[in-house]
Please model this.
Amino acid sequence: MSKLTFRYRIYPTKPQTALLDSTLSYCSELYNAALQERRDAWRINRESVNFAGQSAQLPEIKAAREELENVYSQVLQDTLHRVDKTFKAFFARVKRGDKAGFPRFRSRARYDSFTYPQLGFSVKGAHLCLSKIGKVKIKLHRPLQGKVKTLTVKREAGRWFACLSVECEAQYLPPTLESVGIDVGLTAFATLSDGTEVDNPRYYREAQTKLRKAQRKVARRKKGSHRRRKAVQLLQRAHAHVHNQRADFHHKISRWLVNNYGVIAVEDLNVKGLASGMLAKSVNDAGWSAFLDKVAYKAENAGRGLVKVNARGTSQTCLCGTHTPKTLSQRWHQCSACGLSANRDHVSAQIILSRARIPPSSVNASH
Ligand SMILES: [Zn+2]
Model:
């Protein structure tokens, strides 16, 4: 079984939009109140309040605030679950001794989604039926597959989306012995061990230009003005557009990799204290880890292997094992021992692939 999320745009009518908006604001109110209770309990008595304790108070809260009857009860439960998750993560960080930022309140404007964790919704034809909201038009731009588990309704820059998480049977692809190593690019998106360069699509740059324009526009508008609010919404849309384009691109590349290779080797950049020279890579990391998530679930679903190898020194070693130090600006690999002369990233990708083939213990032992 693997989990997937399908995201579709929904088109609520004006009255439905008002209902969605008020659901968000009730949820954010509940979220903040639940957070407050836990904060006080922790700060004053060093006590932790749990989910069951908060959930048991819901009937009482509803009796006091009749408006909450307009929100599906499991949606409210889920809001308390979110607080619970936030606190569990907080205590886990405290336990590990990490710098633990206390869970924060979320303003109405920044609280932008609510979840039906189990029931209360269904997709019927071109409509999404939501308990307490109604039949909302949905555009299924790709078919919904698998067993639907949860629904999250999201507001993004004045638009609404339905994110349906589903479980589906793994569909293994015919096996292949082909394997590939991938190096994260600084200029190109990635370089493969066979020398293929995967470039960032050209529309990226165009979208970035639009984004900068939208940012300047916001900066020029007077704070608190209607025109500024408009400009902020345009900026949010530009951000969403860039995000979606990147996701599309990641989906295409990851699909292609999983279809063609049995083993996919990448660097594990998620390690503390990486060697110097890794900064530039970690700047790209946000995009890279979103990409790897997509490779990971597609690989799992197709019965392929994704191997994360030790990232240390992948660009400072020759295939023959000789240490070949380079600065970031040195784009060419030249080995004085074996004479190998090649594109730096191409060599790195091959090193990454070779590390996926030897047991990790012996890789670690050599450093
Ligand atoms: Zn060499």
